[in-house]
Amino acid sequence: MTSQFQREGIFLYLLTLLGAWAASTQGGRRSECPSCGVQDKDVMIEVAKQQILQKLHLKERPNITHPIPRGAVVNALRKLHLTKPRMDGLFGSSNWDSDGDTSETDQQSYEIISFAETDYNKSSTKLTFQFARDNEQNVHVLQGHLWVFLKSNMTGQDSQTIRLHMIQEPQGSRTLVSQKYLEPGWSGWQTFSLKQILQDFFDEENKSLKLELDCEGCQNMPFMVNPNDSHQPFLVAQAKVKERSHHIAKRSLKCDQNSNLCCRKDYYVEFKDIGWNDWIIKPEGYQINYCMGLCPMHVAGAPGMAASFHTTVFNLIKANNIHTAVSSCCVPTKRRPLSMLYFDRNNNIVKTDIPDMIVEACGCS
After folding, report:
1. 106, 242 in Cβ contact below 8 A?
2. Domain boundaries, the chain
């Protein structure tokens, strides 16, 4: 219900913008669809911004008040690349600005890096990870790993046992999850598998995951490097989220100067130009693209063309009589995903392929 109200709010806002545009063109040809001549860049950018937020299930852009240190981000991204599954190409290419085709799927894939809030001391370290998700989403965890930088300060022949516990709230009981053995004098990054722990966590719709590391045989010597710039513990997870499937219809050509019929107009916006480069890591911009041109009766689309974000907006325009003579609109008929790497509102790094974001073809509805 909440998401429905959010969508209605977005559409009403876009109607206001497009309504203002329509009012400014009252003297023009009223027989045209609103999309036939829309080239207002402010409107297109606002549509793109609202669409990105909607697809990421965000009410507003994240407010980055405490940026993650660059060293920690670089380390985490390297580990994400190392643990990336390759079984079926689920997460696609890391070529963020590629214009290549991406296969359609009814499941949106996510790669998440979450940095821990740490309560550090010599004998144990508590780690807290914060997550936000839509309760209506069905999350399937493919992989999950905790990365911590451990250091043995012991000498001699005895090894130390590092134990990882999950803390159950609200009672505070501990459950042993995994353990690692450290040889004397050893130091480096260690991983703990958390796939099932994360799956149970999301199934129970919790928002914070609490873990604790302690050491057997360390004789009260510190076993972790004090979490700082490049040694901050983090969690890497890959998951699929069930999404509504989409279907495509016919293709159309890019716009040129020789035709005023329905076509695709290419438009690129850089995130730094709209003040979003502080929370969007990659790509550097978004190939918005939009549909424009005339839709004579003989090129109108066949019934059953898939509804889209753009189609819905223009249907609302029709319903609200912004252009009373509208009969057929030039709308997207094929779109592809946009790969994004960004900070969410909990400062987690998320990589996902947002479906149906980049317009590839247009047709008449």
Report:
1. yes
2. 2-61+246-338+354-364, 107-242
* Range 161-164, long-range pairs (CB < 8 A, 24+ positions): 161/215, 161/216, 161/217, 162/190, 162/213, 162/214, 162/215, 162/223, 163/213, 163/214, 163/215, 163/216, 164/192, 164/211, 164/212, 164/213
In the numeric block, the tokens 């076509």 are attached to 263
Q: What is the DSSP letter of 301?
A: P
Q: What is the pLDDT of residues 57-71, one digit of tens each?
A: 888 998 877 777 767
Tens-digit pLDDT profile for residues 7-23: 445 444 454 444 444 44
pLDDT tens for 312-326 read 455 555 555 544 444
pTM tops 0.90, yes or no: no
* Residues linked to residue 213 through DSSP beta bridges, in sequence order: 125, 164
Task: Return the minimum-mean-pLDDT range out of 29-33, 66-70, 227-231, 234-238.
Answer: 29-33
Q: Among residues 192, 210, 190, which one has the least CA distance to residue 201?
A: 210
Backbone angles phi, psi at 227, to 5 degrees: -55, 120
Mean pLDDT estimate for the chain = 71
CATH C-level class of 107-242:
mainly beta
103 backbone dihedrals φ, ψ, rounded to 5°: -65, 145
Residue spans of alpha helices (H) in the chain: 2-24, 41-55, 70-82, 195-203, 309-319
Measure Cα distances from 318 to 38, 39, 309, 324, 329 in Å.
Answer: 15, 19, 15, 7, 10
CA–CA distance, 99 with 43 (Å, rounded to integer): 24
Residues contacting 93, CB < 8 A, separation 6+: 100, 339
Q: Which residue has the tokens 């898939």?
A: 306
In this structure, the dihedral spanned by the alpha carbons of residues 350, 111, 333 and 32, taken in order and rounded to 10 degrees, is: 0
**Counting Cβ atoms within 10 Å, is residue 213 exposed (0-12), middle (13-18) or buried (19+)?**
buried
CATH architecture assigned to 2-61+246-338+354-364: Ribbon (2.10)
The Cα–Cα gap between 234 and 73 comes to: 10
Rg of the chain's alpha carbons, rounded to an integer?
Answer: 25
